[in-house]
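Supplementary Methods S3. Input chains for the assembly prediction are listed below.
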Amino acid sequence: MTIERLKETVGRKTTLKGWILGKRTGKGLVFLVLRDGSGMCQCVVDENKVNTNLFEDAKRLTQESSVVITGEVIADERQIGGYELQVTDLEIVHLSQDFPITPKEHGVDFLMDHRHLWLRSKRQWAILRIRNTLIMAIHEFFQGEGFIQTDAPIFTGNAVEGTSTLFETDFYGEPAYLSQSGQLYGEALAMAFSKIYTFGPTFRAEKSKTRRHLSEFWMIEPEMAFHDLKMNMDTIERFLRFVVLKVLEKNTFELDMIGRDTTVLKQITEPFPRITYEDAVLILKGEKEVDGKNAVKTLEADLVAVQERMAAIQAEITDREAKLAAPGMKKGEIGFHQAKIQQLKEELSEQEEASRNIPMWLKSARDFRMGNDFGGSDETVLTRLFNTPIMVYNWPHEVKAFYMKRDENDTRWAKGVDVLAPEGYGEIVGGGERETNLELLIEKIHEHELPMEAFEWYLDLRRYGSVPHAGFGLGLERLVAWTCKLPHVRETIPFPRMYGRIAP
RNA sequence: UCCUCGGUAGCUCAGCUGGUUAGAGCACUUGACUGUUAAUCAGGGGGUCGUUGGUUCGAGCCCAACCCGGGGAGCCA
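Predicted structure tokens for the full assembly:
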């Protein structure tokens, strides 16, 4: 039996197998919180109802010891998961000693070094279960719409876009690179199966140290024959709505556990604004308003709010420190104030960072020049005005990849689309309609100084039965990060690989 | 690669302008208490203050170089 299915055995004797998440002892009572991978459940050992050996065993249990535990299931609203086990039998499988991750706070470096154990904690458990829901929902959506799941190679002989830094490996004496995108192969597959999607690992060797970059991440890349930019955007919108609604439906417990406010997530049912690059730039520079909201003014108001919050935190810290200095305080109360002060100091340093960043973002937004690509801060400034993902399309062709289709009506633009998630998460999807004009493609390959011979096979796709087609790439970890509102993508993947981090 | 912040007990941190045996909380351990849910009480062990070199009568605190980490820029999902 698993904790997830305890409701099926209420009132009956049930055996669970798992690990001890925590223990509290009372007079004649031991409270064990058991986790079994499917959920958590409090198990109560009552000295009066079990033999002495069993009770002593229960008292010996330590954090993360593994056990097989039997008892009667009762429903109890107050307990985690809603049920409790009245223990009648207990077998210790392994007694754990000094589990490194205690119920207290730890720094990221320590936690990352213990990632193999950190995965057991509640928050990580909840996040990775949501990741699972998203993965399954992604398959469900595409399979439901008649897409074929297929795979692009991981070893490639050349860089797709020529700009990114790739991981170089040795392929039987030849240099080979780990795939940074399955996009071009996806196009070939779409010409064979009409609608396909790939779902696989992607590698980028950039030395990025930010909250939204990984060296190894998972990307979903659909590609659709006989689709144009508009149809592509329709698909993206249906797709994102579908997967987010699945999480809201299946992971209420997990979302609650990580403290995710789902108000914004629920707005996924509203239409996603579709904004041209030109309009987006005007909005960014504060020259155009959205529903009466001005990007620059909104950000300036944010800055004031941040500064006020900093002053408030500072005042509270001073106040609590004064209380600590006064004599006669009980030990527990001292600990409480100290913990609170530490919390406040952490928030203060976050706010300080925001107060340094916002003026820079404002400057970046004001100085933005039409024709450039958006930076991370520009995305934040822009999305600050919306509560749903937004789609920015028709980009200057110079900043987009060589395969992006040029707009026939206005050749300044390439028919690409970036989807920017709200709440500061920025780009989660990048895609567009692909160029079908053979001459223009060849011209672009030269322009990007890419090796023509490596793209001959790709050009064949335009020589034999070329059709309008479009597709996009979704970064799984960024989607998980936004869905869970996490401060960093490193928590969205079991074993993150990033600059400076290859172990565990 | 550049900018910025940091590296003090197992963990999270304090240590004011350099001054005698380096502190707290948690964790651990001993005992008391308790249908509990990180705020009960009392006692105990635990640190070559990232590395190397320098300034000084004296350095955790100052200087230099290097190593490691956080955040950001660039690049992008």
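Chain A has a mean pLDDT of 89. Residues 331-366 of chain A form the longest helix (36 residues).
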